[in-house]
Structures are given as C-alpha cells and as structure tokens.
Design goal:
The chain has about 525 residues and is mainly alpha-helical. It contains 20 helices and no strands. Helix 3 packs antiparallel against helix 11, helix 4 packs across helix 7 and helix 8 packs across helix 15. The longest helix is centred in the middle third of the chain and has 49 residues.
Length: about 525
C-alpha cells in the first residue's frame, strides 16, 4: 500500500466516525436499540445482508470455493434453504415477536416460560454471538496482517476501536444505515476484484476455461455426512434450513432488525427481499473465488504466498499483489466495511440482551438518559470481550466461514425448538422447554467432541428434533403447570402453520428430486 491507499482508508474511517456522531442523539433505550421503530424495510434489508454477508463471506467464501481442499460450489447447497427459512420466519415466528412490543426477543421467552428459560437462551446467545463475532474480527485481522504487515493484535484493535466509536455513538440507526452503506461497498468490492481476475485470465471465456472443473459441482446427493463426508445435499439443505431460521428469528443480532421495523408489512418486505437477494450475491462471491483461485493455480509463485493451512489468505494476497494502488485502498475499505457491519450489530444486540437481563434483576437505571449511557457502556464492554475472543478464533475449522457456522450449529437447533414451543405450543411448560434445550445442546456438544465423522451441519437438525422430542416426553411424564406471567403470546393461525408445513415438505421433495434427476437430464 502507498499514500493513496492509506488516504482512501483514512477518509473512510473518519467519515464513519462522523456518521456515528451525527446520529448520537437518543432519548431512550428504544431509540438506542431499535432506532425508535422508525426504520424502513430497504435499509433494514441491506443491514441484514451486510451482517450476514460480512467479512466471513468476503474473505472466506471465495477461499472455500477457490482454494480449500475439498471445497468448491457445493457451498451453494447451503443457500437453497434460505428462502424456505425466510418463509418460516415471515409467517410463523416474526409476527408474534413484533406484536409483543419488546426490545430483546428473550423477553418473549420470559413472558411465556419464565425467568429460567429466558436466562438459558439469552446467555447461550451471548456466548455464541460474542465468539462468532470474534471469528469475524479475526477474519478481517488476517487481511490487515497480510496486506499491511502489522501484527494480528494491532489489526484487531484498529478494527475494534473505530467500530465501537461510531456504533456506540449512533446506536441502532448508525448500525443500520452504516450497514446499508457498507453493503454497497462490499458488493462494489467483490465485483471489482472479480473483474480484475477475469481480465488477468484473458477475458470471460478464458477465465471459464481456466476454472478447475472439480470445483463446479454444486450439489452432491451421495454425501450424507455420517461417515466423515461433508457438504452433501441433505445435511446442507436440512441443516441450513434450521440454522438460517434460527439465526434470522431467534438470534438477537438479526431479530433486532425485525423489532426495529415500522410495521409488519416492512418485516415481510425485508425478509422477502433478503431471501431473493442473497442467492445472486453469494453467486458473486463464488464466482470471485473460482476466478481468483484459477489465477493462483496458474501462478506457482503467487500460490506459494498462501500458507498451506490458511486458504483465507487468498483474497487479501491477490488484492495486494495484483491490483493497482487506489483500488487496493478501495478494496481494503470494502473489507473493513464487511467486518465492521458484523461487529457493530453484534455489540448493539449483545448490549440489548444484557441490559434487559439486568433490568429483570433491577440492576438498570430507570431514567431514560441514564439508560442510554448505560447502553453505551454495555456496548463498549461487549466490544472489548469480542476483541479478546478474536485471538482464539483461528483453530476451529479450516476456513473462517466453516468456523462461524460450526459454532452456531451447536446451539441454533435447540434454540429454534424453544421459540417454536413458545409460539405454537401454548401449554408447554418451562421445565419441559429447559430440559429439551439442555438435552439438545448436550448431545450436540457430545457430537462435537467425540463423533468427528458426523458432519456438523446435522447438529442443527438433531438439536431441534431432540429438543422438541425431549420436551414432549417431559410434558407427558410430569405434566407441570405452564410458567411465565400468565400471558399467552400472540397466536399464529393454525391454517397458516399447516399451509407452511405442507409447502415446506413439497419444496424439500422437489429440491431433492431435481437434484437426483439433474445429472441424468444434463447428460
């Protein structure tokens, strides 16, 4: 990098801090955490996408597709589950949460089951989200370490401090509008770097010819994920469905966008647009991985710069080695945007969950202005925790994108099960919900530690089934009275649930049937 690149990065960071300062006025905790429920569906959609398609996707998805041994387009199977999960969130889970008028979705569980269930799920979220965000910060620190040749810890601090300044100043509005801007930068960055890789390979036709054909297999119907195989159709489809439904609806970092919408119509629009827009964006990431990976395979000197066990270095090394100055600065800004969008939303949502948990214990100020100050302090505290955890993120999986989903897969199935019970099973008790949650989580942790041949995407499905089954058995054997404060949560019409369930079964059958038939049809 030269002075021009540093100037581009510096201007962006200064503008980001100024942006947070301009939005610093919040009158209450609802202003700080939910933007006063004044946010429209379009910026919320971009915010959701920027958080999900973050540094993890910008750096690690292309690395998985282009360089990781055993990688390739099979990651796309994961994305087939997104529209199906969005429909579940849109029609079954999101409406009751929004109508409850809450800041933290775990307040919903408190009202339905009581304090014990609320604390179990909330604490689980806080552990998983803080560690997952630490992985995201680690990903961007890898980039800065490779590009700027500065130590990893300095990269972590640089990303964290800037993000905390603007995110804690501007609250949810700064997070959402900042994410919207950052999503535009992320898309521009991935298109730009892909264009340079295609040009280097001699044009679009030549680039396609250079791509390793073994990496073009997107769907593997043979790999079931039970004997060390991974990334097959069934585990990616069913596991992805549970993971995405739980992430978007039962994880405070994403559900907070739903709670921040102006009305239920905007919620449906943002979820629908996210389901529609994700796939083409992921295709862009995969295409970038294929063409950049081809340039590495064709240039042994360039390939030698990537450590054998760290394919995530592919993108930053390509940028610094192949692109002109000025463009390097712009792409560093895009990657910084990817990491900051994840970190800013994480600290805001973690602070919201923590403050509401403490409020339950009477440990939160009652005056609105004091609550806002307290919220900012919690955001800073969680930011520091995340930065600390980021130093331990590199040993979980071969690529960062696998690590982030592996951490979530241990918990997302059981958590989705508890929320479905809270919404659809009005007579289910706290002891049944808690026992089911702990059983699902314990089994997944056992799989993680002692059954390495079981592909981790199955943990999502198994955790959900075990949670629901165990809670049903407890309800039959013990028959305790429902807990909570006596208020039944807003109901979802039974015809809606039946129609969605039937449609879901048909969709899974169609996807599986087409996947089996496609190779024979295509010759």
């Amino acid at each position: 990098m030269n002075l021009l690149d540093y100037s581009v990065v510096g201007i962006y960071l200064i503008a980001l801090i100024a942006f947070g300062y301009l939005l610093r006025q919040q009158k209450s905790e609802q202003d700080y955490y939910l933007g006063g429920r004044e946010l429209g569906w379009f910026p919320l959609t971009l915010s959701v996408m920027a958080t999900q398609l973050s540094a993890i996707s910008f750096v690690s998805a292309p690395a998985f597709v282009g360089l990781r041994e055993g990688g390739g387009l099979q990651w796309l199977t994961f994305e087939l589950a997104v529209p199906l999960a969005m429909l579940l969130v849109m029609f079954v889970i999101a409406p009751p949460l929004y109508r409850a008028g809450i800041v933290s979705i775990y307040d919903f569980l408190d009202r339905r089951f009581g304090r014990s269930t609320r604390l179990l799920i909330s604490l689980s979220f806080q552990v998983v989200r803080s560690f997952s965000t630490g992985i995201m910060v680690y990903a961007i620190a890898l980039i800065l370490e490779a590009v700027l040749a500065i130590p990893l810890w300095q990269s972590v601090v640089a990303v964290g401090v800037i993000t905390l300044i603007y995110a804690t100043s501007g609250g949810m509005k700064a997070v959402v509008y900042g994410d919207a801007i950052q999503m535009v930068l992320i898309l521009g960055g991935i298109i730009l770097v892909s264009g340079y890789a295609v040009a280097e390979l001699g044009g679009f036709g030549s680039a396609l010819a250079e791509i390793d054909r073994d990496r073009l297999q997107a769907i593997d119907v043979q790999a079931l994920g039970f004997d060390g195989e991974g990334f097959g159709l069934l585990p990616m489809l069913f596991g992805g469905f549970v993971l995405y439904a739980s992430y978007y609806a039962c994880d405070q970092s994403q559900a907070q966008r739903i709670l921040s919408a102006r009305n239920e119509g905007d919620i449906r629009r943002l979820l629908f647009m996210n389901g529609v827009m994700r796939f083409p964006v992921v295709i862009l990431y995969c295409f970038a991985g294929l063409v950049i990976g081809a340039t590495f395979v064709g240039d042994p000197a360039l390939m030698a710069k990537v450590p054998a066990d760290k394919p995530d270095y592919m993108m930053p090394i390509y940028i610094i080695e192949r692109l002109p100055h000025g463009v390097i600065g712009l792409l560093i800004v895009a990657m910084l945007s990817a990491a900051m969008s994840s970190l800013s939303s994480a600290v805001n949502s973690l602070a919201a969950a923590t403050e509401k948990d403490l409020a339950m214990l009477g440990w939160v100020p009652t005056q609105p202005d004091q609550q806002v100050r307290f919220a900012r302090l919690l955001s800073i505290a969680w930011g520091l925790v995340i930065l600390f955890l980021s130093f331990f993120a590199g040993s979980i999986a071969p690529t960062v994108i696998e690590a982030i989903n592996k951490v979530g897969s241990a918990l997302y199935g059981p958590i989705l099960g508890v929320f479905l019970m809270a919404i659809l099973q009005q007579r289910r008790s706290a002891i049944a919900a808690n026992t089911g949650l702990l059983a699902g989580l314990a089994l997944n942790l056992y799989f993680w530690l002692f059954v390495p041949d079981l592909f981790w995407m199955w943990w999502n499905v198994i955790g959900l089934i075990v949670t629901l089954t165990t809670s049903s058995l407890v309800s039959v054997l013990i028959r305790p009275e429902p807990a909570g404060d006596g208020r039944l949560m807003p109901q979802v019409p039974a015809p809606t649930v039946r129609a969605y369930s039937a449609g879901l079964m048909v969709a899974f059958l169609v996807i599986y049937g087409v996947s089996w038939a496609a190779p024979a049809i295509l010759g």
